[in-house]
Amino acid sequence: MREQGLQGKKALVTGAGRGLGRAIALALASRGADVACWDVNEEGLKETARLIGELGRKAVCRVMDITRTAELPAAMDEDAAALGGLDILVNNAGVNRPVPALEVTEECWDSILAVNLKAPFFIAQAAVKHMTGGGRIINITSSLSTNVLDKRVPYQTSKGGINVLTRALALEWAPLGITVNAVGPAIVATEMTKAMGSSSSVHPKMLLGRLVQPEEIGSAVAFLASDEAAMITGQALFVDEGWSIH
């Protein structure tokens, strides 16, 4: 068990049913937080909840399609009530569909931006009213928000938007005592990256020569959620082996 730096805090993590989202939820729980977990994968949520329970923390799970924005406020209200408040929001859920730019359809564009950019804003908007006396919002961005590869225009656009959203909300919500930051991974060793084939290999711009582990992203998120990061806001912390310096 790690040092209980988030003891008694209440968190919500989107996309918590597997991979990076699960690692983030467990990182927060291992430091003492109770966690509400949203995902479209019910079985994955059950496993995440079981693991959180093994850490001695409470898990509240909801099968949730975050693109149904009209449902977000009520879901947020219910889960914040079940937790007994809300201190931390992690907008982690995301999708990536590599497609050549000339083949991107309107459906492809809209579906990626709906999950990666539109939903995080409206989830944050719904969360803020529960963060009385301050809170932490952490958005998951990407190295590809500042550097680009081919066949990823909608994804990269969405993550560039997340960087701007992070700074804009940090400015507007600072008077509420809320910090807003982002964590930007490079290629993380998850089932999603394995399913993308060659995208799961180590890129030459990853200078340390291996895939980023989900737990390493979880640690960065937990730091930004902690009191140690109280004076950090509007920033993107890239955990990407130097990819973003190129």
Mind explaining what this structure looks like?
- The protein is α/β, with parallel strands linked by helices and 246 residues long.
- The protein has one domain (10-241): NAD(P)-binding Rossmann-like Domain (Rossmann fold, 3-Layer(aba) Sandwich), CATH 3.40.50.
- The protein is 40% helix and 15% strand.
- The protein is built from seven helices and seven strands.
- Helix 1 (19-30) packs across helix 7 (214-225) and helix 4 runs parallel beside helix 5 (153-173).
- The longest helix has 23 residues, at 106-128.
- The mean pLDDT is 94.
Rounded to the nearest angstrom, the distance between the terminal CA atoms is 37 Å
Low-confidence parts: none
CATH architecture: 3-Layer(aba) Sandwich
Task: Examine the coordinates and then state which fold CATH places here, giving the name of the CATH topology.
Answer: Rossmann fold
Gross morphology is: globular
Structurally, how many domains make up the residues? 1
Order of strands across the biggest sheet? 3-2-1-4-5-6-7
Going by CATH, what is the homologous superfamily?
NAD(P)-binding Rossmann-like Domain
Question: What's the CATH C level?
Answer: Alpha Beta
Structural category is alpha/beta
The largest sheet is:
7 strands, parallel
> Count the strands?
7
Estimated radius of gyration:
17 Å
Q: Bin the strand percentage.
A: 15-25%
